[in-house]
Amino acid sequence: MADRSLESVSLPLEVRARLAELELELSEGDITQKGYEKKRSKLIGAYLPQPPAANGAAAVRCRLQHSEGAARRMLRTANIGVCDIREAAARERAASTAGNRPLFYFRFGVDQALPQERRTPVTPSSSSRYHRRRSSGSRDERYRSDVHTEAVQAALAKHKERKMAVPMPSKRRSLVVQTSMDAYTPPDTSSGSEDEGSVQGDSQGTPTSSQGSINMEHWISQAIHGSTTSTTSSSSTQSGGSGAAHRLADVMAQTHIGKLWTRSMKVAYNILHKLGTKQEPMVRPGDRVTLVFPNNDPAAFMVAFYGCLLAEVVPVPIEVPLTRKDAGSQQIGFLLGSCGVTVALTSDACHKGLPKSPTGEIPQFKGWPKLLWFVTESKHLSKPPRDWFPHIKDANNDTAYIEYKTCKDGSVLGVTVTRIALLTHCQALTQACGYTEAETIVNVLDFKKDVGLWHGILTSVMNMMHVISIPYSLMKVNPLSWIQKVCQYKAKVACVKSRDMHWALVAHRDQRDINLSSLRMLIVADGANPWSISSCDAFLNVFQSKGLRQEVICPCASSPEALTVAIRRPTDDSNQPPGRGVLSMHGLTYGVIRVDSEEKLSVLTVQDVGLVMPGAIMCSVKPDGIPQLCKTDEIGELCVCAIATGTSYYGLSGMTKNTFEVFPMTSSGGPITEYPFIRTGLLGFIGPGGLVFVIGKMDGLMVVSGRRHNADDIVATALAVEPMKFVYRGRIAVFSVSVLHDERIVIVAEQRPDSTEEDSFQWMSRVLQAIDSIHQVGVYCLALVPANTLPKTPLGGIHLSETKQLFLEGSLHPCNVLMCPHTCVTNLPKPRQKQPEIGPASVMVGNLVSGKRIAQASGRDLGQIEDNDQARKFLFLSEVLQWRAQTTPDHVLYTLLNCRGTIANSLTCVQLHKRAEKIAVMLMERGHLQDGDHVALVYPPGIDLIAAFYGCLYAGCVPITVRPPHPQNIATTLPTVKMIVEVSRSACLMTTQLICKLLRSREAAAAVDVRTWPPVLDTDDLPKKRPAQIYKPSNPETLAYLDFSVSTTGMLAGVKMSHAATSAFCRSIKLQCELYPSREVAICLDPYCGLGFVLWCLCSVYSGHQSILIPPSELETNPALWLLAVSQYKVRDTFCSYSVMELCTKGLGSQTESLKARGLDLSRVRTCVVVAEERPRIALTQSFSKLFKDLGLHPRAVSTSLGCRVNLAICLQPHRLGKLAEQGTSGPDPTTVYVDMRALRHDRVRLVERGSPHSLPLMESGKILPGVRIIIANPETKGPLGDSHLGEIWVHSTHNASGYFTIYGDESLQSDHFNSRLSFGDTQTIWARTGYLGFLRRTELTDANGERHDALYVVGALDEAMELRGMRYHPIDIETSVIRAHKSITECAVFTWTNLLVVVVELDGSEQEALDLVPLVTNVVLEEHYLIVGVVVVVDIGVIPINSRGEKQRMHLRDGFLADQLDPIYVAYNM
Asked: What is the pTM of this model?
C-alpha cells in the first residue's frame, strides 16, 4: 500500500538518500527486515496521505519536531538530511559570490548521521541483527564477471556427484560456542577504513557516542577556520542544522587559491623558523617531515603538503596511527627512522585523537623515532613577516616528496619523487586527461598517495580545478554520495575504485534523478586489476540509462615507482569499443598469451588501460633473471622510461639499482637504449595499437611448481562460489607460503557470523574443487576466521603481509581449517626401495663384514675382575642380608625422606632382617603359602616394600611389586593392579592397612570385582615370633622375583629373574658404580620395575651402601626435595628418572637464586644417572645441566642408562668426574654425535657436523656394564651388521632375564626374544633381543684398562618405529619437531592409523588457538621429515598417557583415539 502511494509522492532528496542507505544496510546484513520496514515506514509516513483520525497526532508530531530533543533524535536517525541543507546553503553562497569562485570543493563525512548502534560496541542485544543471513546481494560484484561465475558454476557441476573424500573436522562444543556471533565486533567494509572520526576517541582509538556526534563539525572548524572550539561545535550540533550548514557553506565557498597560498606560506615559515632555535633549527630545507592527517581532512593536508614544498622540506605522508598495534605501523616507523624524520605535521583534531599516555603525552609508537608533533592550524602558527617570501626555484632533481609503499613481505619502502618529476607528471596527466581550468572533479580516493594525490591534490592545483573530496566515512553511510555530487555539480571527472562502483550498484535503487551525462571521464584507479572489468561492465549496464557513456570509463594503471603507467584517454567516438581480450588462464600460468573463447572454463577476460603516458616509453621484460625483452606472446613485467617517475627507494641504493636503473636487453644481449627504465611491478603485455593490458602485479604472483598464479584470480574464483552466503563482505586474503622447497597457496576468508560448521566446510570443499578445475592448482590451506578479525590496512582492506605473518606464527585463530597437503604436495622424495641385506654368503674376514667392522662390544669380564667383595661368596640375596645383620647390624641401609625433607623412616641391617623374618612367619602361618607361591606386594614407595620383598625371600615365595591404586583415580588405576595380580597368578596380596581398606572400598567395587581378590594380608600387624628356619633355594637358577611393567607400546609384560641373575646384576652395578658401605646414594625413582626397583630394594643389601630414598610423588608438593636432599646429605651419586628431571627443570627454573640462598650446593655430585628405557633425551639433560650449573652442578655429571625387558640394565655410566677430585674413574667421558636423520630412515648411520641440515644429536647411553656383550643385528635377517648400520641391539649377559611370565605361555615369542642366535657368524652364542634400534661406534677414548671405548647409541624402540613411504621413522624425532612448532604445544605423540600419520598435540592455551596448530604441525612435519600428516588431534593437557618413567604410552593413546575417548578440542583431517 505504501509503495503504491509512494509512486505519486515526490520525496525530498534527503529522504531518498536515507532510503538508499536503508537499502544498503539491508543488503549488507546490518539491519533486519523488520527493522528496515519500521524505519522505512517512519521515513515515508509523513509523505503518505494521512487518514482523518490521525490529523491531531500529525499536528502534535509537527510541533514536537521543533523542540531541541526532537532535533537531536532526528539528527541521529536521519541519514544526510543536514548535509543537503548545507549543500543548498553552499549553492546560495556560491551564487552570491559568483565573482569569487571557489577553487576547491571538499566533501566531508557527517559522522553524526551514523545510527547510534553503529558507533557503540556490540552487546548481545545489539548484535542480534547479525544473526540473520543477508537476504539479497548474493555475490560481491567487485570480483564478479558473468563469464567467470558461469565458469565456476560449470566447474563445480562436474563435482556435484562427488562425495567428500574425508570426514568433516570435529570440534568441541565449547569451541563452537565461543566463536558464536555474539563475540563479533561491529562489521566493517573491506574498502573503508575504521570510522574516520575514531581519532577523536580515547587513547585506544575507540570513539564514544558523544564524541561521534560532534566530531565532524569539530573537524571542519579546526581544519579550515581554526577558531571554533569543541564546545561551540557541540552546541551547534545539538541546536539543529542551520548553523552547521552555514559554516560548511563557508568552507565550500572560501577555500580559494589565495587562501591556500597564504596558509601554506604560514606553515612554511613556521616549519623553518619556529621549530628549534635560530642557531639550531630543527628543520632545514631538504629535511624530511611526516604528514599525519585523516582521510576526511583534505584541506589541512593540502595546506601542509604545499607548505612543505614552499619550505623545500620533503613531506612523507602516512596514515593516522589509531593504536600502538596498528597493522604495519612498526614498518612505517622504520621508514620514518631511516628518513631521519623528527617532526610530524598534523591537524588539531587529529592530534587530540591520537593515543595518549596517562600524562597526556603521545606515546612513542613501536618502531617509530621520537617525533615532535606540530599542529598546522592557523591559530597555532605565527604570522610570517611581510618581507618574508619562500625561496621558489625552478623544478630540479631535488626530492619533492616521499610516498610510502608496502611490499609483499610487509616491509615499507619510501619512493622519492623529484620536483621535475612531479611537475612533468602533472603536465602529462593534464595532457592525457584533457584537464581544463575550472573543471569539477569528484575524488573518492585517498588523497595522501597514488592516484588520489596526483589528481586531487597536485594536478588539480596546476589546472585550478574544483575538487570535491569524499572520504570513506561518508561512503559507508551513503555509497551514492559521489554519484550525487557528480549530478549536483555536473562534474566532468570522477576518480573512483571498483569497490565504489560496486557500492553504488547495490544502493542505486529508487534513485530516479541521477544524471551522469556531465561526466566525460570516470577514472578507475584500480582498473589494472583483471577483475575490475566486471565492475566496469556492471556499472555501465546499470547507469547507461542515466546518461553514462561507454567511452567515459577510463581505467588506469599506476605504481608507486612509475607513478601513472598508462591511462585510457577519453574520446568522443562512442562507436569505438574499448580493448578487451579473452586469455587462456592455463597459458598465463606459463607466462604466454593464448587467446581463447569465452565458452571455456579457465579463461581470463582483461581490458586495456589505454596508452602509455605522454613522453614515456614502455616495454615488457621477463620477470625473472636478467631484464630480457619479452616476445609479443609473452607476459612480462612492464617497464617505463620517462621523466615523470619515482627516482629511488630512499636510503636503499641496492634495491634502487634493481628497480629504477634497469636496462632491458635484446635477445642478442645488448641494451635497447642508453636510458634506464623503471620496473612498475605490473605484469602484462602491450597489445595491438599500443594498448596496454595488465593481468596482475608482481607482489601478487605465486609461483607453484613452476607455474605462475595471480592472487587476485584465485580471490575471484573463490568469491564466485556463493560468496555472500559464507564470506563476510567478500574479505578474502590469498598468499603463498614456502613449504618443502615450493610455494603453497593459502586462502584465508572471513566467515559470516551466521554460517554453520557444515555449511562452511561444504563451501571450502567447493572452493577447492573450483580452483582445481579452473586454475589446475591445489590449495594447501583454506582457513576461515571470524568476521572482522583480519588485520586491516588504513583504508580498511586486508593487510596481506600481517595476515601471512599471523598464519605463520600461529596467531590467526581461525574457526575452520581445511588442509590439503595430500593433493597439492607433489614434490616428495620417491619412496624407498629396500635393498637386500648382507647374507651368510658374504665374505667374512675376522670381524669385518663387507669391509666394515662387525658392530659388537662388551663390558669388563667379571671373571677377571679382582675385588674384595665379601658378598660374592653368597649365591642368594637372602644370605647376604643375614650376613650383614650379623657382621654390621647397626649399619643404616635405607633412609626414607618425606616431602619436608626430614627422615620419615630408616632401616639398619638388623632391623630389616628381623622385620623380614616376621613377614615370612605371617606368610607361612596366616597366608598358608608354600615354596614358590607368588605374592603381590602393593605398597607405596618406602621401607615397607623393601621389608616385604625380603620377607618373601625368607619364606621362599616369589614377590611381584605392584604400584598401588591412586586414591583419587581408582577407576583407572585399580584395573591395572587387578590385571597384574591375575596375570602373575599371585596366591596372596600383601599391603598396608590403608591400602587394604581402599581395595575393599565402594569405589573399588565399582571398578573391579573385589570378590575375586586373593587373600589380602595387612603387614601393619606382624607376628612377634621368628620363623623356624629361613628358606634357602636349592638352585640358583630358581625364580627370585617377577618384574612386571607396561612397555611404551602399551603391553603388560612380566619377566622372570632368577637368584643367580639377581646376584650377578647387583655385582655388576656395584663394580660399575663403585658402591661400598661408606657411600651414600640418593634415589628418586619409582621402585616397582626395572633398574628403579633394583636400585631401591636390592643394591644396598648387596653392596652395603646407604640409600637415601625419595619418593617421586613427594616432588609434586616440593619440587626441590630431591636436590635439597642431595645437597644436605652431600651425596656424590644420585639416580632419577626423566619425569623427575623434567619436574625440576620446569618447577625450579625461576627459583635458582632462592635455592642458592637456602644453601643448595650440588658441587659434590659426581654422577647423576637418568634411569630410562628409551633414547637419551639430550635436550632435557642439557637444560637441566645448564639450569643448575650456578648451583655447582658440573655439566658432565649428568648421564643416562639403558634397560629393557630382557635385561634390566645394559649400560650405566659410572663416575665421570674422577679426574676432577681424585675420585677414581672407571670410564671415559660420554660422547655426543650428530647423525644424518635422513640416513637413519634408511637404517644407515652417517655422522655429520653439528648444525648440519637434518642433523640429529645422539648421546651415548652409558658404558656397557661388566659381564655384558652387545652386538647389532638385522631384525629381519638376524645377521650381524657393521658399524655404519642401524640395527637391533642384542645382549648376552649373566643377568639377563630368564623369560616372559604369562598365563598364555607363548613359547615362540619367548624363544625369539630370550634365546636368539645369529643366522651366520657366531651362531653358538645365545642372545636376548632388546627390541631397541641402535648402533655402536668405536671412539678414540680409552677406559681405565687402556682399551678403546665402544659407545652405544640408542635411536628408538623397534615396536614403535613407523614404516612410512618405505622408510623407518621414529616417533620421538617427529614429536621433537612438532613441539618446536608453537609455544602452546606442551606435549606431542604420533602414531599411525591405517596408512595415515596421526599427530596428537596438547594445547596449553585457550581453545581458540587450537586451529592455529593444524597448519604449523603439517608444515614442520613436511619440512623436516618429508611426511604428510593425515590427522591432527588437539587435546587438553594431560591426555597423552605417560608411565612412571616419563615414557609416552603411544599405543594406549592410539587405542583411545580409535575408541573416541580423548575428548579432543579439534580433530583435523588433512586432504
From this structure: 0.77
